[in-house]
Design goal:
alpha+beta; 30% helix; globular
């Protein structure tokens, strides 16, 4: 297959439940990030995109529960994989026999599932978590909303990725719904060697 040009950008944005216009909030976050990420310094571009999205959502919000979103993404450059997140959407990397969460959850320390930071949502400007790794063509990268990862185990994720015939993202979301998830379920599976 023909190689895609760098950088490759994949993003999952999940509008905050119970807040106004979650679908619009998640779209704004993706649009602002894609606009800012180019061939330059990915870390700076990610921070600028998140800041721009946060400001835009703050200006657009009209109700008591302002628009907000979580986000997780990856920027694949020619030699690096730059992961970023705000909130509780997650990034993983999978090898042949292991799974590792790369992102950092922004959850309150009280043990509840309350977010400690998000984009918009009436909160202060978030500080994105950014992890830069060497791009590894043998690994699979995975981005998921909390509707998926909170409903299925890491073992189940590994089994789906290993056994799926090109539909692993859909299969993960379907399994999460079958396992009782009542949240939005979104997943992206990235195989750099495919």
């Amino acid at each position: 297959p023909e190689k895609l040009p760098s950088p490759i950008v994949c993003i999952v944005a999940d509008g905050l439940g119970g807040h106004e216009d979650g679908e619009t909030a998640s779209r704004v976050v993706i649009e602002e990030l894609v606009t800012c990420i180019g061939e330059g310094d990915f870390k700076t571009a990610i921070a600028e995109g998140i800041s721009s999205a946060h400001q835009k959502l703050s200006l657009m919000s009209r109700g008591r529960r302002p628009m907000g979103s979580t986000v997780v993404g990856i920027v694949l450059g020619s030699t690096q994989a730059v992961f970023f997140n705000v909130g509780d959407s997650r990034a993983y990397r999978l090898g042949q026999s292991n799974i590792e969460q790369v992102s950092e959850d922004d959850l309150s320390s009280s043990g509840s599932h309350m977010l400690s930071q998000c984009i918009g949502g009436g909160s202060r400007l978030p500080k994105p978590h950014v992890v830069e790794l060497q791009r590894n063509e043998t690994e699979t990268y995975l981005l998921m909303s909390d509707g998926v990862w909170a409903s299925i185990s890491d073992k189940m994720i590994m089994e789906i990725i290993a056994s799926s015939n090109g539909n692993s993202a859909k299969d993960l979301c379907d399994l999460a719904v079958q396992s009782g998830s009542e949240d939005d379920c979104t997943a992206i599976v990235i195989r750099p060697n495919a």
